[in-house]
Specification:
Distance between the termini of chain A: 36 Å
Shape of chain A: globular
Order of helices and strands of chain A: HEEEHEHEEEHHHEHEHHEEE
Oligomer: homodimer
Number of strands of chain A: 12
Radius of gyration of chain A: 20 Å
Strand content of chain A: 15-25%
CATH class of the largest domain in chain A: Alpha Beta
Number of domains of chain A: 2
Structural class of chain A: alpha+beta
């Protein structure tokens, strides 16, 4: 944790920018980094994959539940996971930040460090940003990435394809459920909520292996597979038995009187990847088959509508 | 104005996205537009100019002072002007929006229309975005642009260069001063505050003409020339007599008991361009010489420190 004293009011906008700039190393593709009207980055592939996410205090995070560094990691992960789901990898990013004048400088610096550290996982450079005053903390990030192979859309699933998953799901939702009831354990699920671990290598690997459709599991598995089914004009059936319910999820379910399968099928924000592949493809390491694509529409579990079929989280409702 | 009834709570996140998507036409460079995990755009030049801005209700705009369409125009203009100041032109953008559940759908649609209409001025495509719930309205936009010629930085001004300006300055500040005292006229300055008119052609033209440094006048002319002077390691002197004080600014000054020169020298948010050129260059149309670059540091007016030398607006202070 940063020890820098004072508040944003004391150092001002330009002081904050100076405090965080050293945290962001600039990669070889950066022609003009932070400090001018705009940044300039080279795009040797001649094509960018582009995603933006807005995180708002009280909606996406709470300062009493997550550290500033955790929130930085989550903001960067949410964006970079979207690029991952296209089969790409993040190369550069810009970050817009709003916060109150009485916010400790150390909090803002820790947020920046979390963003920088998550970006470092894939070698992405934060090349610029904007800083402004705001009552609630807002973090808006836009990531530019590139695809070495084909771009994988939501719309390419075909009847006969298998459905596969890479990465943890349900852990973040279990962590959220625990925190919402005032608990702090099991620690592993709380940590999973605070800091998701998207499988960044898995998107490009799936694209190279021939994935026909892919999506970032951010709303919940069934909801996100629903987006794939709709975009592709197909039906998707998930086998509930494909999932081994990890012990911490079982423990949370037992403690809270909930079926832990619900976390797995409907919990969002773990930023796992779900994809469809031709049935004959050998899945890349880390992927497991969880279902099949058929003619039709909608998503089922073991052939039936899921009892608590969720629409996924939707803002304003 | 849009007549669509209801609130965001009634149509939800996905309903809002469906309502605004038709407003955003997709240009030829867009390989994947809104609706997937990320957008994909082609970058034939192999280089992108990249800028982000965050506008927060109560800080950058007030709903009782500006229409939703005006705010959309301003959000897009602020970003695209930064690209303009590099000598570039915006090609594509992503928009993140946060607003309260009780916000009228029509307001959000009008905001989107303002963004779309401003982007249409330069042919930029809005290729994606994010929508979330937030107590205060926030609009965060990131623009990707390209430069046909050289990129013009803040750091290239050299002693002996002339300083030139393109576009209105002081009008937005005069409009803000009028609105802040509860008036709505002169209408032209109020309109100038609500909807700036950046000279989008002027940035690329200045780059082609050999501009050595350039900046978007968003903090105020003296403050922004100060950024150029610092980045370039030079002194800049502005001739006060170079400016013809437009009649509406004189009227506002007289009504409020202020020197209208103050609006011109320190008012921000008009998104004019200031640039330096070698002294022998013939300025492109629309540009006027306003001063000179010399050895030294800092910004002076007619050789002296400006009485009310401003540091420019700084958030948190």
């Amino acid at each position: 944790m940063t020890q820098q004293p004072g508040t944003l009011a004391e150092i001002g906008e330009f002081g904050l920018i100076e405090a965080i700039r050293p945290l962001f190393p600039q990669g070889a593709a950066v022609e003009v980094g932070p400090g001018d009207d705009a940044a300039v980055v080279s795009v040797p592939s001649g094509r960018v994959v582009l995603s933006t996410d807005l995180l708002v205090e009280g909606r996406h995070f709470r300062r009493d539940w997550s550290s500033a560094e955790d929130i930085g990691h989550r903001a960067a992960a949410a964006n970079m996971s979207d690029v991952n789901a296209m089969g790409g990898r993040a190369d550069s990013a810009v970050v817009a930040f709003g916060g109150p004048a009485d916010l400790p400088v150390a909090w803002a610096v820790d947020l920046a460090r979390g963003i920088a550290d998550e970006c470092a996982l894939v070698g992405a450079s934060v090349v610029g940003g904007d800083v402004t005053e705001s009552d609630a903390i807002v973090v808006s990030m836009t990531v530019l990435g590139s695809c070495a192979g084909p771009v994988v859309l939501r719309s390419g699933a075909r009847p006969g394809d298998m459905v596969a998953l890479c990465g943890r799901i349900g852990w973040s939702a279990a962590g959220w459920a625990v925190l919402g009831r005032g608990f702090r354990s099991p620690r592993v699920v709380v940590e999973a909520h605070r800091r998701p671990e998207p499988p960044y290598a898995a998107g490009p690997e799936a694209a190279a292996a021939g994935a026909t459709a892919m999506i970032d599991v951010s709303d919940g598995l069934l909801a996100d597979l629903g987006h794939v089914a709709t975009a592709s004009g197909v039906a998707i059936d998930v086998r509930a038995g494909a999932f081994e319910i990890a012990e911490p999820l079982q423990a949370v379910g037992a403690a809270l009187g909930l079926d832990p399968v619900q976390f797995v099928l409907t919990g969002g924000e773990d930023h796992a990847l779900a994809a469809t592949f031709p049935a004959e493809v050998e899945l890349p390491a880390g992927w497991m088959a969880i279902g099949a694509v058929a003619e039709g529409s909608g998503v089922t579990v073991d052939g039936s509508a899921y009892d608590e079929v969720p629409s996924g989280h939707q803002h304003f409702r």
